[in-house]
């Protein structure tokens, strides 16, 4: 998911940086400071997730967790992911500093979209429905990020469908795993800490 | 039936495009006049055969091309003692740039800077003994390069690997930032409280 330095054109880099800056600014503005520890914990989870490679067949994949982060944080996903991406670039050499804006935007925007799409679903009274929406959020965020990565490459001159197909196929295992993990996380959090998903208490009465 | 199709699809995906989400890594080493290079991904997969590697000089002009063969290896015969820049585009946003500095190439090659041309002139006008010495130097260079190559590879792999310290360090930074945010907010609140009372 991390695009490396040198793969994108200057225009894409600049607009990605501008969009990401806007998202981060809006996220910080909307950030409820009582939720700051959650933002930190999820940022740390994203940071570590891409270090842990799970073996799939002869290759390995790593979780992205942007769906879960989006569901839990909404717009605050932008600052949370920016911090984690900066640290990944510094410590692991993932991505790079020039593409930081594009990478942040590509990973955080799907998170925010999933927040709006699945917010009602995961607060549904039935755990089954909530789990399904959690899975949709987890897998959907990865799929959207894949398309946005392919789009960034296409805007820089690579053939869109070729890149999109290649990255999408490669991420099918990630999407499956991510869907399961997000669904499980949603169900767990609903039980033990409903406020973590910004869920108000009222759904328990319904 | 449906499940098995899905499983086959997933396995196929995992096998055919194994390298996404990983960094592109590589190295170039001079063995005599030949520059050998290696391109792969940080998880150990090597680049596929058939990918073209462009060779450019310091000003960006194309001076040659090489094709990646089995196990991500490619070779290029240097004709000048200048900095060589290698570009490999592994598609889907995986690009790699490698540099081989001029001073890793043998001094016998004609180069851009003055002292090197002098030494090559001296070598060409030398007696039998001098020629032998040049050949000997080349042999030694080749032998040493061969011995050092696995070490270089190992070192490159080691550099790519993030350690537990990196992970813990990153988490520490994040928690530190959160602490900073909470502290700043607390200060603000206290100020507000002080101004109200």
Q: What does the model show?
A:
The complex is a heterodimer of chains A (206) and B (197). Chain A has 206 residues and is mainly alpha-helical. Chain A has helices at 10-30, 36-49, 66-73, 77-91, 100-122, 127-155, 160-170, 172-192, 202-205; strands at residues 53-56, 59-62. In chain A, strand 1 (53-56) and strand 2 (59-62) form a beta hairpin. The longest helix of chain A has 29 residues, at 127-155. Mean pLDDT of chain A is 80; it is low at 200-206. Chain B is an alpha+beta fold. Chain B folds into 2 domains: 9-160, Immunoglobulin-like (Sandwich); 165-197. Chain B has 4 helices and 7 strands, in the order αβββββββααα. In chain B, strands 4-3-6-7 form a 4-stranded antiparallel beta sheet, with no helix packed on it. In chain B, a hairpin with a 5-residue loop joins strand 6 and strand 7 (95-100). The longest helix of chain B is centred in the last third of the chain and has 33 residues, at 128-160. The radius of gyration of chain B is 26 Å and the shape is elongated. Chain B starts with a helix and ends with a helix.
């Amino acid at each position: 998911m991390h695009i490396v330095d040198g793969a994108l054109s200057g225009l894409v880099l600049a607009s990605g940086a501008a969009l990401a800056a806007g998202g981060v600014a809006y996220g910080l503005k909307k950030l409820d400071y009582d939720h700051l520890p959650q933002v930190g914990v999820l940022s740390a989870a994203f940071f570590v997730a891409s270090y842990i490679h799970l073996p799939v067949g002869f290759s390995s994949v790593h979780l992205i967790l942007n769906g879960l982060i989006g569901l839990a944080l909404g717009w605050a996903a932008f600052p949370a992911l920016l911090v984690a991406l900066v640290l990944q670039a510094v410590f692991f050499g993932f991505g790079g500093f020039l593409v930081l804006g594009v990478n942040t935007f590509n990973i955080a925007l799907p998170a925010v979209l999933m927040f709006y799409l699945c917010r009602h679903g995961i607060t549904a009274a039935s755990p089954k429905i909530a789990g399904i929406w959690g899975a949709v959020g987890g897998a959907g965020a990865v799929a959207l990020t894949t398309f946005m990565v392919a789009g960034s490459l296409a805007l820089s001159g690579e053939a869109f469908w070729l890149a999109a197909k290649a990255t999408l196929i490669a991420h099918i295992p990630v999407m499956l795993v991510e869907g399961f993990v997000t669904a499980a996380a949603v169900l767990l959090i609903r039980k033990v800490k409903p406020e973590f998903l910004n869920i108000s208490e009222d759904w328990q009465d319904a | 039936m449906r499940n098995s199709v899905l499983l086959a699809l997933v396995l196929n995906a995992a096998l055919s495009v194994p390298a996404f989400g990983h960094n592109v890594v590589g190295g170039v080493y001079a063995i005599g006049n030949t520059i050998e290079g290696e391109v792969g991904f940080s998880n150990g997969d090597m680049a596929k055969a058939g990918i073209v590697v462009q060779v450019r000089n310091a000003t960006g002009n194309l001076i040659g091309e090489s094709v990646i063969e089995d196990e991500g290896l490619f070779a290029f015969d240097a004709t000048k003692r200048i900095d060589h820049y290698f570009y490999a585009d592994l598609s889907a946003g995986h690009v790699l740039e490698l540099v081989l500095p001029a001073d890793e190439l043998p001094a016998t090659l004609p180069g851009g800077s003055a002292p090197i041309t002098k030494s090559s002139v001296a070598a060409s006008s030398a007696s039998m003994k001098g020629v032998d010495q040049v050949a000997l130097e080349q042999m030694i260079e080749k032998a040493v390069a061969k011995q050092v190559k696995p070490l270089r590879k190992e070192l490159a792999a080691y550099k790519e690997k993030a350690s537990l310290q990196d992970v813990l360090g990153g988490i520490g930074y994040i928690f530190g930032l959160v602490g900073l945010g909470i502290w700043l907010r607390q200060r603000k609140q206290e100020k507000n409280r002080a101004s109200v009372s």
